[in-house]
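Holo model, flavin-adenine dinucleotide. Inputs:
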Amino acid sequence: MSSSDFDVVVIGAGPGGYVAAIRCAQLGLKTACIDRWIDNDNKPSLGGTCLNVGCIPSKALLDSSERFEQIRKHSAEHGIQTGPVEINIEQMQQRKRRIVSELTAGIRALFKANKVTSVNGHGCLIAPGKVRVRASDGHGEDQVISAQHVILASGSEPTVLPGIEPNGKTIFDSSGALDFDTAPSTLGIIGAGVIGLELGSVWRRLGSKVVLLEALDKFLPSTDSMIAREAQKQFSRQGLDIRLGCQVTQVECTSQDCTINYRQGADDRSVPVERLIVAVGRRPCSDGLLDPACGLQINERGFVEVDQNCATAIDGVWAVGDLVRGPMLAHKASEEGVAVAERIASGAGHVDFATVPWVIYTDPEIAWVGTTETQLKTDAIEYRAGVFPFAATGRAKAVGMTDGFVKILAHADTDRILGVHMIGPQVSELICEAGFAMAMEASAEDLARTVHAHPTLAEATHEAALAAAGRAIHKINR
Ligand code: FAD
Ligand code: NAD
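Output:
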């Protein structure tokens, strides 16, 4: 067994781990990053779930399918005449693969430029400051890497429903659903959460008839309820068949298709589909990460427990990203990675968990930061709400995307912004202004007094801030 010494060793090169490794190296720490990912060409690939089978490939497909739908359904109103419009799915998938490989190669280049040592293999914490690396293919000699600090960033993987395991033919998880070579005529999705809605939108736009079976009675329960209602209305109008309160009891597959049997209320129902995606959440990827003798254990749900600073119960062992509590989001993982690197180097680092934004990249997009109205009511916090519809902004009219609105919630006494909720065009971008305002502890009046360019979609945020004080210009204040 060979061995080597570092200041920091990171296990996992997703957005938590690779960002932590780069920041450690920038701060002068001798850093290694171990990752076991092997791509479809049998080559190591950095970037974790996010770059390989998550954020990036899903957004590439969302963009291609959105363009296809726009051209088919909305060209004529602009006076653009087209012949029959077709989608070449193989070409769309090639574009997605190229984007992924450019970005993963980019991480490799950043590691090189920052002098991060990249090690391919499975990492296991065997003792504080000691990580054993086993080659991804199981061959070759184990290696032990010693370091003063270890950052665990092994991420997450799809939750599997017993009896409904992916089989590569009819049943798929999110990774398999990103690789379809044709749009199935009928597509079932178990779980109407973020992945179900994003991937359901992709394949619906490309021609699939999509049915989503959701266990809960409420649609998107963690979003603002006004937004969830509007989203459900828009998605149903587009043709997504969203069925709530469904308990899937059994899935029967042939080599061609499958039948999903489920119970909804008192009724037993079934739906035949050509393909099925299971998207019922993700679980931490912690199998084989901790040797029983290392002194640290995963909890009953598979997470590594940490405090607000991402410190584990062992001095010098840290954990970040999907492996620990909090939302499973790439930007949250990266911010934790940066903060841990800075704590290791200087003793101080910070993540503002209250201003982590959420985005669902459907059409319309959904985005929010901070507290919901329901939560404010539960906590008996007095607030004022300002709502402004995109339909009343010139830019939304000009780009033909008038569905949705911005809602700002501000404290009744201090006027401090407590939450911002959006549904509409490009709200994935607009939410960043709201996040910045909240991080700066801005009041709704601060936003209202900030000059916003005209004509922009961001004027809806400006007007919602004015509306919170009952003085919106382009709508009637009630
Ligand atoms: P990961 O990205 O999961 O990376 C962990 C890495 O560690 C992997 O490379 C894994 O192979 C490796 N690893 C695991 N165990 C070991 C071990 N023992 N030894 C060595 N290596 C190991 N989030 C967003 O914010 N925005 C989005 O738009 C978005 N879209 C998504 C779309 C899909 C379809 C999916 C599935 C997820 C999406 N996410 C999105 C979630 C996002 O991908 C995750 O929150 C993020 O990747 C978590 O980062 P991480 O570094 O904690 O873990
Ligand atoms: P999710 O938690 O968003 O949604 C899962 C849904 O499945 C929930 O509504 C849940 O009630 C439902 N469900 C659970 N068990 C079920 C069952 N047996 N039958 C029917 N429904 C069931 O999880 P996801 O969509 O799998 O995504 C996983 C995570 O990945 C997300 O929580 C998010 O953190 C991350 N992600 C983020 C983005 C983004 O930021 N845009 C995109 C994709 C994924």
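The two ends are 73 Å apart (CA to CA). Residues 161, 190-196, 198, 213-216, 248, 279-282, 327-329, 359-361 surround nicotinamide-adenine-dinucleotide (ligand 2) (CB under 6 Å).
Archived with the compound record.
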